[in-house]
Amino acid sequence: MTKRDYYEVLGVERNAGADAVKKAYRKKAYEFHPDRNSHDPQAEEKFKEASEAYEVLRDPEKRSLYDRYGHEGLRQTGFGGFSNFDDIFSSFGDIFDDFFGFGGRGGRAGQAMRGSDLRYDMEIDFLQAAHGVEKQIEIEKDVVCPSCEGSRSEPGHSAQTCPMCRGAGKVTRSQGFFSISTACPQCHGEGTRISHPCKKCKGTGVTQERKRLNVKAPAGVDTGSRLRLRGEGEPGRHGGPAGDLYIVIFVKESQVFKRHGDDVVVTVPITFSQAALGADLKIPSLEGETDLALPAGAQSDTLHRITGMGFPRLGGYGKGDLIAHIVVKTPQKLTREQEKLLRELAELEGASVRPHYKGLFEKFIG
Is the domain of 272 the same as that of 339? Predict the structure, then answer.
């Protein structure tokens, strides 16, 4: 299904700032919020569409990628939008509470909340980016406490309803004609109190551990590519889903190749005689050496393209090209025979060249 432009979905200009994007989303989300349009399936789809657009345009990295490559660029990072309303509400946390005064779908204290996403920067070699690679990484992250299983209470005990807010997580104060709700100062918005904190996690519900993960970088990735490992982020709260781990790729520079999109450029130095007469050369490629038939009369700084020997196209078919950048090298030191032959050639061409200056030894012997 073809997706609409995210700027069009929110009705903002492409240079709109963060505040303008947020304001536009607030208007759309309020208009199509599922709790206000329970019998309108089109409103549900528009709400998800607006939420997806906001998720991209509020994130500088996602927005930059979208501006450069569109929806296809986002798909290559693993971002595929939201599958349901709970996914939207958990991703945005308390944003709906900030916007409208009600939470995701009811705003109850202790509601399930999605865990935070994590980021890991992974460096790979140039050829690994070309062929793909599987690497093992090690990260330190929070995990659900194995002793209390995230309840925060010592085994055999449970959380108690907060006596101040009676489990609401909020207290309401009246000021004239207005009523102001704030987070409960005793339970900090949780709605419950822990009377016997878990000794292992000290009542936090999480512990830290080092975890090894196998990461597969597909052939064709480039610096800035992001891989998404679902559920490998921070654990959720109150039974909410864990966040995701984003692997950001950094490709080391090659001393042999330069990358331009999906094409690979290799500099090929040749001699004057090879340029003039042509040559069958062996040149480096991503697959090892390959043949290049250099025609006679090749000029310096020209490009020769070998199709299908570049980087695989991510999310597409085929490969880029290998481009041989020809550079004619002028020798800085000549043997006597080389100089003699070049002077003979210059004479045949009628070209003016500097005269040969005899050294002291040549003058001495004649």
Answer: yes
